[in-house]
Amino acid sequence: MRQVSAVIALAGFTLTVYLGSIVGGFRVKDLSSFQDNIERHPGMAWRAPSSDSLPNNAKGESIRRGLLIFNETPLYATRYTGAKLSCSSCHAEGGMQPFASPVVGVPTLFPMYNERAGHVISLKDRIQECFVRSENGQPLDYNGEAMRNLVDYINWLSTPQPNHQPFRGRGLVNLPDLKPDPVRGRAIYATQCAGCHGESGQGRAPMFPPLYGKDSFNDGAGMNGVRKMAAFVQHNMPQNRKGILSPQDAFDVSAYIHEQPRPSFNSAYKKF
Question: Are the CB atoms for 212 and 257 separated by under 8 Å?
Answer without folding.
Answer: yes
